[in-house]
Design goal:
Layout (H helix, E strand, L loop, with lengths): L11 E5 L3 H6 L5 E4 L7 E7 L6 H16 L16 E13 H5 L6 H4 L6 E16 L6 E3 L2 H7 L3 E3 L30 H6 L4 H63 L1 H4 L6 H8 L11 H11 L5
Parallel strand pairs: 1-3
Antiparallel strand pairs: 1-6, 2-5, 3-4, 4-5, 5-7
Length: 309
C-alpha cells in the first residue's frame, strides 16, 4: 500500500475543493462533511484541489454561512478575498467525528454549527491556522501524509486565525482524544425543535442552495473524471492498434525480403520495371494517398536493391 495513505499518519493532510477548503482554514467552516469517519485526531493540513470554483458555487456557500451565522447574532462575516487552487492553505485541529443526526441534535454547540451537518459523518474542527504564503503542491485522495520537506517549511509559516464564532466541542472523556466518535452523543429531538429549524424561509433556501452547489460540483468532477477515463482508454486502444499495425507491417516487409532472397535478385531484375512499378511497391501498406511510414521505407529500400545495374 502507498505510504501516503497507509494509515500511519505523521503529518496528515486532506485535499478539499474550493471554496470549502478556504472557508475551513479561515475558521468560517467548522464541520467537514465526509461519507467516512475521521481516521485521525489532532492537526490536519488542508490542501486546495486544482479545480477552480465558479462564481455561483462561491455565492451559494457564502450565502449559506451568512444565514447560519445570523442565527447566532453574527451578521458581518469576512470571507476570503481569494480561493487559490493547488495550494497548501493551512491546518485545523480535528477533535472528533459524529454522525449528522447526532450533530443536528447536539444542544451543547451553537445552532449554526448544527446546521453545517449535511453529510453522513461530520468531522469537528477547531483552532484554524493559515499559511501566510500558501505552498503550491499536488494533492491525493483521502487522508495522506504531507511530505517532510513541505511540512518543515509550512510549519514555520502558520499564523492563527480569528474565527467569527470560535467553538469548543466538549469531549465525553477528556483523557481520551477519540472519545468524541460516532455514537458518543445521545440523540434526543422533539417535534417542536424540529419545527423550529424550519421557520426561516431564507435559511431553508440557503441550505438548499448549498446542497445544490455541492451536488453540482460533485457531478462536474465525476463527469470530468469519466471523460478523462474514456480518453485514456481510447488512447490506449489507439496505441495498441498502432503497435499491432506496425508489427504487421514489419512482418510483411520481412516476408517480402525473404521472398526476394529465395528467388534471387538477379532473376527478378531481368524484367525491367517502370517508375510506376516501384511507386506501387513502395505504397503497398500506406495506400496511394498516405505518406510513407517506417515500414514502407523498408520496402522501398528492398526495391531499390533490385534495380538493374
Amino acid at each position: 500500500m502507498n505510504s501516503r495513505n497507509s494509515g500511519n499518519y505523521r503529518n496528515p493532510c486532506l485535499t478539499m475543493h474550493q471554496p470549502w477548503a478556504s472557508l475551513l482554514v479561515h475558521g468560517i467552516k467548522r464541520i467537514e462533511g465526509r461519507s467516512w469517519p475521521a481516521p485521525i485526531r489532532g492537526r490536519l493540513w488542508i490542501h486546495a484541489a486544482s479545480k477552480v470554483p465558479d462564481e455561483a458555487t462561491i455565492k451559494a456557500m457564502e450565502g449559506f454561512y451568512r444565514e447560519i451565522y445570523a442565527l447566532n447574532g453574527i451578521c458581518n462575516l469576512k470571507f476570503p478575498e481569494h480561493y487559490p487552487v493547488s495550494r497548501l492553505l493551512g491546518c485545523v485541529e480535528v477533535v472528533g467525528c459524529v454522525r449528522c443526526e447526532e450533530l443536528t441534535c447536539w444542544e451543547e454547540v451553537p445552532v449554526g454549527v448544527r446546521l453545517e451537518g449535511q453529510t453522513d459523518f461530520c468531522w469537528l474542527c477547531e483552532q484554524p491556522q493559515k499559511l501566510l504564503v500558501p505552498f503550491e503542491m499536488r494533492g491525493y485522495q483521502g487522508v495522506y501524509n504531507l511530505e517532510r520537506k513541505i511540512y518543515e517549511a509550512a510549519i514555520r509559516g502558520l499564523v492563527p486565525v480569528e474565527s467569527p464564532l470560535p467553538v469548543k466541542f466538549p469531549l465525553p472523556d477528556p483523557q481520551d482524544s477519540f472519545s468524541l466518535k460516532p455514537g458518543a452523543i445521545s440523540v434526543h429531538i422533539t417535534e417542536s425543535k424540529a419545527n423550529e429549524m424550519e421557520k426561516s424561509a431564507s435559511l431553508s433556501a440557503a441550505i438548499a442552495a448549498a446542497r445544490a452547489a455541492a451536488t453540482q460540483f460533485s457531478k462536474k468532477i465525476h463527469n470530468t473524471q469519466t471523460i478523462n477515463n474514456i480518453d485514456n482508454k481510447n488512447i490506449t486502444k489507439t496505441d495498441q492498434l498502432e503497435r499491432k499495425t506496425s508489427e504487421e507491417d514489419e512482418t510483411v516487409t520481412s516476408e517480402r525480403s525473404q521472398g526476394y532472397d529465395k528467388q534471387g535478385l538477379g532473376s527478378i531484375s531481368k524484367e525491367p520495371r517502370t517508375r510506376a512499378d516501384y511507386r506501387g511497391l513502395s505504397t503497398i501498406h500506406n495506400g496511394p494517398n498516405q505518406h510513407l511510414g517506417t515500414s514502407s521505407k523498408k520496402v522501398t529500400w528492398v526495391v531499390r536493391g533490385m534495380k538493374p545495374a
